[in-house]
Design brief:
With 113 residues, this protein is mostly helical. 67% of the residues lie in helices and 0% in strands. The chain has a domain at 38-110.
Length: 113
Amino acid sequence: MVKITLEVPDELSEQLLQMGDRLPELLALSLQQPPLPAKIYRYILDFLASKPTPEQIIAFRPTAQMQERLKTLLTLSKTGNLSITEQQELDEYERIEHLVIMIKAGSFPYLEG
């Protein structure tokens, strides 16, 4: 195990001391960030929670900001310049896209033709 020495403000020091032997667990959890910002998941969940019609589901699209970020990630991927974090972000966008496609495919039978 590696020993690390940090300088922290007194008020933070007191909180860290209260953590005791759970400090490594707290540090590990704080480093586990979701691949995408929470607002992206919120956008999708809010849409699904709104009980959309099949037509609204078919018309559902990412925001302009999401589309621009995805375009940037795809460009970086094509040039081999993605960082590990950006690759994780791109992978998560791909998982979400797959789920949305499955949800849209499930809506087709309910569309009036």
